[in-house]
Specification:
The chain is built from 18 helices and nine strands. It is α/β, with parallel strands linked by helices. The chain is globular and about 80 Å long. The structure holds fe (ii) ion (FE2) (2 copies).
Length: 439
């Protein structure tokens, strides 16, 4: 099948083109006038017609002509004009309606609906789980697979089989990063894992290093689980457990913050390590500001654990949306970065069990004091003080992850943080200066 656009090529819908090509493996062509469009469509029933409405005034004529053809695909109409919304309900001819600048998922869904073709490279039957997570178990109560190709998965551990760390190391050495669990076993696996983590997070007799490791595993588990489930009560409970474990540790520990952060950085995953670092740092800054009531600490820690869940390692590293960095990303990745604050804020707003105001911290986590942040470019007076603590903490976590905690880094950070010394950032700035013992 091939897609055929009717419209001006210059005003191309590159987003739709890229998904046709990259996700569905379809080629495409353009026709700039109706007769060329109809000629091509009449001669090839395996064409997916895509009409860009803004270019043509007489849509009904086109619709009449398409009605008479025996097309294998349902035509797509790209339009923002509400007067056409009734067309999709027409029983003679169902159009798939698509608004311009729709998000990636919606575009994919529309093409899937119009063509009946499934997206490539997506295998929803198998859920990926990071391999090092299996070191925690010697039995997972689920069949475990490795992926050979998009279609082919091979079982490496049987449901009732006991295994040891040697097996996991063997696969790690071969470069295997993820194991896969089938959809029907995943819920069971999830519950099993969750119980294990919960027990460890609340263990009294556990070394700080081991506790940090458990918190890291829990963070990565939450991120992975959220790619399969929504915010179920189970997941919300697990996130809260991690939050409380973080707060208890940072509040009570006699270990210096930097020494704890050192235990976090294992360079296995920026995303998980960065989330946990941000949590510790924000709790410590709030403590120094004498804002350490449980409510505030909970919100900061929750925001830290959840703020980048819609990103992967590569995209989470794009801390400031600088033009230089964006050049390295394709349009789909850029859009994911631009949208992730909105997405997580919206998700939290519609989920139960989270404190009010958490959505705002999430929405604003890439705003900056000089209004150069995103998505809204707020000024330092429009960003709430608790968001300011979060933004500063993330900045510090990001720098320490890449540059370590030598005196040079601290000096550099001290200098950079000066930029935050105004508006609602002032108090958070003063707190941040105290976390390495300077003021
Ligand atoms: Fe982040
Ligand atoms: Fe982010």
């Amino acid at each position: 099948m091939k897609a055929l656009f009717l419209g001006e090529r210059e005003k191309s819908h590159e987003d739709v083109e890229l998904i046709l090509e990259g996700v569905f493996g379809l080629s495409f062509d353009w026709a700039t006038n109706l007769s060329e469009f109809l000629d091509k469509t009449v001669n090839d029933s395996f064409i997916l017609p895509i009409i860009v409405e803004s270019e043509f005034s007489n849509i009904s004529k086109i619709i009449d002509r398409l009605l008479k053809l025996d097309l294998k695909a349902t035509p797509i109409l790209i339009t923002n004009n509400p007067k056409y919304s009734g067309l999709s309900g027409n029983t003679d001819l169902r159009f798939v309606m698509l608004k311009t600048n729709s998000d990636v998922d919606l575009i994919e869904e529309s093409i899937e609906k119009a063509t009946g073709l499934l997206r490539q490279n997506v295998n929803k039957q198998y859920h990926p789980v990071h391999i090092y997570r299996f070191l925690k178990f010697n039995n997972v109560g689920a069949d475990v697979y490795i992926k050979l190709s998009d279609e082919k998965f091979v079982k490496v551990i049987n449901k009732d089989e006991m295994y040891d760390s040697g097996l996991i190391e063997k696969y790690t050495q071969r470069g295997v990063e993820k194991f896969y669990i089938r959809e029907d076993d995943f819920k069971l696996f999830f519950n099993h894992f969750q119980t294990l983590l919960r027990n460890e997070l609340y263990k009294e007799e556990i070394s700080e290093e081991k506790l940090i490791e458990t918190q890291l595993s829990s963070v990565s588990f939450v991120h992975e689980a959220l790619s399969s489930f929504n915010f179920s009560p189970d997941i919300v409970e697990l996130v809260e457990n991690i939050t409380h474990s973080n707060i208890r540790l940072v509040k009570k520990s006699n270990t210096k913050l930097f020494d704890m952060l050192k235990h976090i950085v294992r360079s296995k995953s920026y995303l998980y390590e960065h989330s946990l670092m941000t949590s510790y740092i924000s709790i410590e800054i709030a403590k120094k500001m004498n804002w350490s009531n449980t409510n505030t600490l909970e919100k900061l820690s929750l925001a830290s654990l959840l703020h980048d869940i819609y990103l992967d390692d590569k995209l989470a590293k794009v801390h400031d949306i600088e033009k230089e960095k964006l050049k390295e990303l394709d349009w789909k990745e850029t859009k994911r970065v631009q949208d992730h604050s909105f997405q997580i804020a919206q998700q939290i707003r519609s989920s139960e069990g989270f404190p009010p105001d958490l959505d705002n911290i999430l929405l604003n986590h890439h705003e900056l004091p000089d209004s150069s942040g995103y998505p809204r470019g707020l000024s330092a007076l429009k960003i709430s003080p608790i968001s300011c603590i979060f933004i500063l903490s993330e900045k510090i976590a990001h720098t320490l992850f890449f540059e370590g905690d030598s005196g040079d880094t601290v000096n550099k950070l001290n200098l950079e943080l000066e930029k935050y010394n105004f508006g609602n950032f002032k108090k958070a700035f003063q707190g941040a200066r105290l976390i390495w013992g300077k003021n």
